[in-house]
Design brief:
15 strands; 5-stranded antiparallel β-sheet; 10 helices; alpha/beta; single chain; 18% strand
Amino acid sequence: MVSFVMEKPNRMSESQNVVVSEAARSIIPNNSSAPPGFISISKKKLLKNLEIINDGERINAWVDSMRASSPTHPKSLPSSISSEQQLSSWIMQHPSALEMFEKITEASGGKQIVIFLDYDGTLSPIVDDPDRAFMSSKMRRTVKKLAKCFPTAIVTGRCLDKYLCFPKVYSFVKLAELYYAGSHGMDIKGPAKGFSRHKRVKQSLLYQPASDYLPMIDEVYRQLLEKTKSTPGVIVENNKFCASVHFRCVDEKKWSELVLQVRSVLKEYPRLKLNQGRKVFEIRPMIEWDKGKALEFLLESLGFGNSNNVFPVYIGDDRTDEDAFKLLRDRGEGCGVLVSKFPKDTDASYYLQDPSEVMNFLQRLVAWKQMQPRV
């Protein structure tokens, strides 16, 4: 996950002058005499010109990060993992979860498996229009069977229910027996009453750690809509506890312009932070909460907070899922599975290429569980 912090320049006295080298003449007008090889200008003018340079550097860094946020072909990979040998090395460190299925089930060692699934790019394909990211009926049947075998949660950046005019993750999944953690874990609900088969499930669970931010997110969403309307291809979503700016369909030549538009809105909201996912900016509350915290909270709600008798499996494709992967690695239990066709820096232990492989893996989990002796 990439986070950006808005930097503010230090205040300086406008009456003070500074002496700069001749090399600075390209950015500073020569308006006074100074020692040979130097010019004298006010600190205000120097600061203004340096701020322009710094802003340009920051914008370039953002655009570079945008390019790297969703590699779609091998040449997008960093040079450090571009060769065939280095690709093989990456796969050795992050083998296929399908090829290592027996090892994963053996590692569970009779512990309670709990499944956590991202939605976009994991259960459904990535599409240009986020409102058309439908999961297949076959995938839905697979997840339904999965939830009969293991406590199962959807952990997504989308909000849970229809909010304002947006159809959200529950309208896509349509399974009441699941846990749902929307808005990157800031909107958590347990299974609907009477639907869960698992004794530990708290069906009345509802947790919203960022509820105080709702009016602010609504306000920022409206401003982003207005500010970005001149940039073709932008899609702005209000995900209740966060706002999303999708640039998947924006011409790359317009990305710098989009960065400036988003920054111009966010500079007035120091209590919000900007994170980046796959071709999307996420504007979220400045609180210590993410998908990793949501995973931890859900395990606690299931009674496994300090238990050694649990084996969490988290499957996701986005930078925002790295918080959950890192949590599992730090805890030394369960496993993270990255969904990607190309190598990426990740804390996940295994990989799957796409939603079809995810479905295959989940089907094998169900079949494996059904073969286990009943306790």
